[in-house]
């Protein structure tokens, strides 16, 4: 394909081809590939240049997103790039670049999330949160989630919830039991603690 015209506008370069086709690429890629000195380019080389340009743009976008949201999984960053219009190959390559350079550390992010929620949520809720946010099973399995903390959290939450409950209102107590069980607390432990608090 013959290149009829080349223009640099800000951080982008515009190439105009003989069929009237126009292509916009990153200025740095334009200079690195030496396109300013070429009058012709084949389709394969153009596709490589477009991929490199898209990758460079994806990396720039991902850097600012990582700085704003450091506690995401690799999949979370990948999904963000897809939502911004990048194709799968570009998104994967950009995320892999930051993983290899150590800028994205999924294990570290998962540990920080666990520490953040360890005193507020049950280990089951934390696992659900990690899965929902796209953390890999291999990462989750390496975490040291302590179910012992669940009892402490259970006691604190039960104290709050049982303050407003009438001892004789079995429907309300059943609702509380269901609420805790749905969040991953052991049924027998919940019932035992309720009996302790309400002197059943």
Spell out the key features of this protein.
200 residues; mainly alpha; 3 domains; three-stranded antiparallel β-sheet; 10 helices; 3 strands
Task: Give the topology, please.
Elements: E1 3-9, E2 12-17, E3 22-26, H1 27-32, H2 43-68, H3 74-83, H4 88-100, H5 106-117, H6 123-132, H7 137-142, H8 148-162, H9 170-182, H10 187-198
Antiparallel strand pairs: 1-2, 2-3
Q: Sketch the topology as an H/E string, one letter per element.
A: EEEHHHHHHHHHH
The description of the largest β-sheet is: 3 strands, antiparallel
Into which percent range does the helicity of residues fall?
55-70%
- The CATH level-2 architecture of the largest domain is identified as Orthogonal Bundle
**Beta-strand proportion:** 5-15%
Number of domains: 3
Mean pLDDT: 86
Question: Which segments are poorly predicted (pLDDT under 50) over 5 or more consecutive residues?
Answer: none
The whole-angstrom Rg is: 27 Å
CATH topology of the largest domain: Arc Repressor Mutant, subunit A
Give the helix/strand class.
mainly alpha
Overall 3D shape: rod-shaped
Assign the CATH class of the largest domain.
Mainly Alpha
Distance between the termini: 85 Å
Number of strands: 3
Number of helices: 10
Strand order of the largest sheet: 1-2-3
